[in-house]
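Reopening this one. Same input as before:
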Amino acid sequence: MVAKIMVGKNMNGALNYNEIKVSEGNAALLHADGFLLPKEQLSFQNKLFVFSNRTELNDRAKSNSVHISINFDKKDALNKSELLSITEKYMNQIGFKDQPYLLYEHFDAAHRHVHVVTTNIRYDGTQIPMYNLGRDKSMKACRVLEKEYGLVNAVSKKQIELETIKAIPEKVIYGKNETKSAISNTVRAIIRDYKFTSLAEMNAVLKGFNVEAYRGEPNSKMFEKGGLTYHVLDKKGNHIGVPIKASSIYTKPTLKNMESIFQSNKTKQQPYKNSLQRRIDKLLQTPIKDRFVFQLMLKKQGVDVLFRENESMVYGITFIDHNTKSVFNGSDLGKGYTAKRILERFAESGSLEQQKQEDNYNELKNYIQNINYKTGVQKSVEQIYKDGYQLAIGQNSLGSNKYYLSFQNSENGVRAGSINRFDRYFEEGNITEKLCNHLNEYLIQNGIQQLQQYIQNLFSAQSDNYFGHITADKKKPKRKINW
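Same output, byte for byte:
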């Protein structure tokens, strides 16, 4: 059970948010506590009237609107009666006993959750302190109620799991839904989930949902005063319909408020930079024909690539990593990831990987040439795996066994064919295909250190003649092991 408390001074906004959800069929009013009429008879104005009467008792309060979301794990099977009971006890335990509140159940996420709209102004005009309410009372109340109702413990479950199971916005289509509601839901979800550090990066994400944040034309009054509006986009990327002021959205995503979010996101996105760099580098190890292939290949990995260009040139690039919900300009990733350098790397793509494969092949051939054939087959096998290689057997065109050397855990599949002496050495030592496969599978499952000990233990009872390679007593016949 996870409770998230949002405090503000816009009771109309908190109420309107939930009522719109109800009108869209994405929520239902479960309970109204402290209202004169039954919940079925309450109009929007009836609800707002009760809250307004209470908040007017203290016009000095900096905050008077409280919006709480209470989230449950998908495994928590709760009926309506239990939801009401849990909410009532939660409100009492955080100090909101006798406060009027509305309880809504929302259906726009994969997990069960409810929203509570209330006020922190008491009937005598005094104010319920909100400072550290979540840390001091809310978390404690959640743990108590989890035990009482047998709910999944959010701490052991990792609280973030519940908080990240949220509604994913759909593309806004003009005329399909009420414009303000559609824009508001999309903007809130993007700000909640994605980490961007500028308005341009934010718009890179928003445009994927047919929405744009707009400052106005440079030198206009709106631009100079730091205004911000949100617009729906048509199929060609043009503004359509009536714009929505940032200040009219419940969470107030104004330019001033967004600047503080941009700043905090600079720290939040840093842990995800290296993983994106690695994915880009790995892709560019293979031949890339042009930027459209580059975009398509990264999109398959959950990364959108946006090239910024004018009539004559490409001047910028933005990466939207939907896996980590992080947005990076190419220059923020490093010199090797700017638009200019990425385009240059297309011509180079694949050449580095080809050179690497050639180097690996030469290394394997050189190793084969320098094997000490006097040490005994068992020790040779031990040394091959110890040095980071592994054996495999195939057949040549005549149907004879051919021994190959490759790298352990290698993704490029480079292997070197053996010379005749190498083939005879291991064939006479009875190194069979079944034995090679057995050792390679053991390596994958247990690692090289355990494999070294395994080889020694596997053959220690019969020493060198386990492989049929007799060194101690050459009069004894060679002994084949049926692998």
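So the earlier flakiness isn't reproducible anymore. For the record, The longest strand covers residues 314-321.
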